């Protein structure tokens, strides 16, 4: 929202200029709540030779003649309103793809946050939950451009993180509407960590709050999306399937916004029927293209808690069977002689490599660990592959 359309900015400027609250209340009761409305309140402009229309309008608003001090304050407020609205109109006409979006005024930013805190009483919007200024400005820029864009998790920073970490100042060259080269600087905060479930939950909450402050999407609807992601992440998968990964959830999140963008091609700005994103949210929330990405994927049956590894590439053998045709990049493991005598092999029946140190009881990691960088901690005796060393396996071969 521009300065000319903000009620908070208009009230702040009127009081700072010198108008008292009672006089401003009379102006507000007549419907002049923003600079845009006040700038076109009468047939008068700052360049006019006569201000009689302006004085007559003030007399109608106040119900009396304005004092000289009040008249001075009203003239200054009118000139500021007219200049701001003219600048907003000019920026909209001359807007290009490289144009930087205007940031929210501090008064407007504070008013939106306070209104949200009063409305959402079940959540304390402070600390980790308070969205950063750059995140709110990015959502507001999305609303001003009337096009929905995806906001990745690492960009959903908090106000606390924004204050405590360095903010980079990037410079780039852009062309203005009259094809002149211009150097622009913009703030670029460091991305926030989003690798664990709790970090992602905080990021999604901040994004939902920022989207609501920008009048793009209702927070309660966005919170349904976040709760769905966490619920699916915590579900135990069926036998033979993997748990839904965070990468899957991120892909589903991107797909959801892509589908929302398709449903709101005509724009995302609020109209008489409501916010377009709110109206199409229930339909997109149930779409098969989105839900399909949140289904568990099939996986190999491994011991509980053991992450899956890519199977070891088998050695290519030549006609004599000596492995001379092995290509670069193939993984080859030589089974120790002691394990060969016991009947040991290099990989499981599923192609997962094994740790020979565990089978010989020489691995430095504790026995309770189920894997290390050399392979799974399972018995390497062919056909066994249980959780005990090969030297203690009852199925090992006997040798002198």
SSE order, as H and E?
HHHHHHHHEEHHHHHHHEE
Give the overall shape, derived from the CA principal axes.
elongated
Number of domains: 3
Portion of residues within helices: 40-55%
Strand content: 5-15%
Q: How far is the N terminus from the C terminus? A: 86 Å
Number of helices: 15
Q: Please state how the strands of the largest beta sheet are arranged side by side.
A: 1-2
**Got a strand count?**
4
Determine the mean pLDDT. Answer: 82
Q: What about the largest sheet? A: 2 strands, antiparallel
Radius of gyration: 33 Å
Low-confidence stretches: 301-310, 312-330
**What structural category arises from helix and sheet content?**
mainly alpha
In short:
Residues 299-333 are annotated as: Disordered. This protein has helices at residues 7-17, 21-29, 35-39, 52-62, 68-93, 106-119, 133-145, 159-164, 197-213, 219-234, 246-263, 276-285, 288-291, 337-342, 356-359, and strands at residues 167-175, 181-189, 371-372, 375-376.
Provide an overview of this structure.
This protein has 15 helices and 4 strands. It has 3 domains: 3-93; 106-294, no CATH class; 333-400, no CATH class. The chain has helices at residues 7-17, 21-29, 35-39, 52-62, 68-93, 106-119, 133-145, 159-164, 197-213, 219-234, 246-263, 276-285, 288-291, 337-342, 356-359, and strands spanning 167-175, 181-189, 371-372, 375-376. The termini are far apart. The strands form 2 sheets. Strands 1-2 form a two-stranded antiparallel sheet. With 400 residues, the protein is mainly alpha-helical. The longest helix is centred in the N-terminal third of the chain and has 26 residues, at 68-93. The model is unreliable at 301-310 and 312-330 (pLDDT under 50). Residues 310-331 have a biased composition (Basic and acidic residues). Residues 299-333 are annotated as: Disordered.
């Amino acid at each position: 929202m521009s300065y000319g359309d903000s009620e908070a900015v208009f009230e702040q400027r009127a009081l700072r200029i010198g108008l008292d609250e009672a006089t401003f209340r009379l102006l507000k009761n007549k419907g002049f709540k923003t600079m845009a409305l006040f700038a076109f309140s009468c047939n008068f402009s700052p360049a006019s030779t006569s201000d009689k229309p302006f004085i007559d309008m003030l007399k109608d608003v106040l119900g009396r003649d304005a004092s000289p001090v009040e008249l001075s304050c009203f003239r200054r407020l009118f000139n500021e309103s007219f200049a701001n609205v003219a600048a907003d109109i000019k920026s909209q006409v001359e807007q290009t793809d490289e144009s930087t979006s205007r940031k929210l005024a501090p008064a407007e930013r504070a008013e939106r946050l306070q209104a949200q805190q009063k409305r959402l009483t079940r959540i304390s919007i402070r600390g980790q939950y308070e969205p950063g200024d750059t995140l709110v400005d990015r959502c507001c820029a999305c609303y001003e451009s009337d096009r929905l864009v995806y906001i990745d998790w690492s960009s959903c920073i908090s106000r606390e993180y924004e204050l405590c970490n360095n903010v980079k100042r990037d410079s780039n060259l852009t062309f203005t509407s009259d094809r002149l080269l211009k150097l622009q600087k913009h703030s670029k905060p460091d991305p926030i960590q989003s690798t664990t479930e709790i970090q992602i939950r905080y990021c999604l909450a901040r994004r939902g709050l920022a989207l609501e402050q920008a009048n793009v999407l209702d927070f309660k609807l966005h919170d349904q999306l976040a709760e769905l992601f966490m619920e699916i992440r915590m579900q135990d998968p069926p036998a033979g399937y993997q748990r839904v990964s965070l990468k899957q959830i991120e892909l589903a999140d991107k797909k959801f916004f892509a589908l929302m963008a398709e449903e709101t091609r005509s724009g995302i700005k609020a109209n008489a029927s409501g916010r377009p994103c709110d109206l199409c949210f229930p339909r997109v929330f149930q779409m098969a293209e989105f839900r399909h990405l949140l289904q568990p994927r099939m996986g190999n049956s491994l011991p509980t808690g053991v992450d899956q590894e890519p199977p070891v590439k088998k050695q290519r053998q030549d006609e004599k069977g000596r492995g001379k045709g092995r290509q670069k990049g193939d993984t080859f493991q030589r089974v120790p002689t002691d394990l060969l005598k016991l009947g040991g092999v290099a990989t499981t029946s599923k192609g997962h490599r094994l740790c020979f140190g565990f089978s010989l009881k020489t691995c430095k990691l504790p026995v309770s660990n189920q894997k290390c960088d050399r392979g799974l901690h399972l018995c390497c005796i062919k056909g066994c592959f249980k959780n005990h060393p090969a030297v203690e396996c009852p199925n090992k071969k006997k040798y002198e």
